Amino acid sequence: MFTASLEGLASLGRQGPRALAALVLIGIAFPPLGRLVRPWLAEAVFLLLVLSFLQLDVARLRAHLRRPGLILAATAWTALGVPLIFHALAGLAGLREKDPGLFLGLMLQGLASPMMAAPSLAALMGLDATLVLITLVTGTVLLPFVAPVLTQLLLGEALAVSPTALGTRLGAILTGSVLLALVLRRLIGVAAIERHRDAVNGVNILVLLVFVAAVMGDVAVMAWADPIVFAGMTVLAFAVFAALLLGTALLFRWAGRIDALSLGIMASQRNMGLMVAAVGGALPSTTWLYFSLCQFPIYLSPLLLRPLIKARRLPER
């Protein structure tokens, strides 16, 4: 029974891009599932963090630390540059006054660290997953300290949660996930985790199903209620994703095509779920809609971006 379960999880984990795309369809097609699992959104985010830290390759992590210049530049860009640019552009568009809910959604997207699933998605596309991982880790470690300061400076009273409470919750979620991952690594063993990596990825997909269903359960209802707003926000979600990916790739093209695209993938996949978990899900409806629609480009990216990567538009190092 146990062996069969492992093989079933491993088979699911090997589905890669197709499984991620299927999650989006399932989340939209079965709204009752979304309502059922939504109370578990924060727990799903926590488990996704645990699973990512569980598969951390310490040796490759140390190897990338020998290139501190690239790591520091990428960390500064994703932790400081992205939210500041988001705020500047939102300010130019007057979104704080015209559409406070969308303004909050964009700012939470900018303030968020990269998704913990970004290394796996980068690997699916043949990019440098380790570079993504180390930059993601450094940016995530900074998040509980940087996010409260930037929240106070950039959002003011737009967020219902105080900056101090936000930083405390982020710190608790991240610290708890790291500690649990370390305990599991000790109990299971690094060799066993590596041997059953596909099965771990299968568990990751199941947890992602809970997350995606929770955030996308009402998407069909929202689309039917106001199709024009829905279409506009969908276009915006894809445009922001593409701008972050291509802008980051161009900014770091000096590091080589593979590294530049890897960092582009990392920067474009913002962990808005972590921010939503930290604020307890207390978001305006427009913010929630934008958050839901941002999942489309993230989970469809392995299928959508393969032609871009194969095109070799950036020069090799």
Automatic annotation (TrEMBL):
InterPro entries per record: Na+/solute_symporter_sf
Keyword Transmembrane helix belongs to the record: yes
Sorted UniProt keywords: Membrane, Transmembrane, Transmembrane helix
Keyword Membrane included in the entry's annotation: yes
Residues annotated as transmembrane: 16-34, 70-90, 102-124, 131-150, 170-193, 205-224, 230-252, 272-291
Source taxon at top rank: Bacteria
Coiled-coil region: none
Signal peptide residue numbers: none
Name of the protein described by the UniProt record: Na+-dependent transporter
Organism of provenance: Plastoroseomonas hellenica
Lineage: Bacteria, Pseudomonadati, Pseudomonadota, Alphaproteobacteria, Acetobacterales
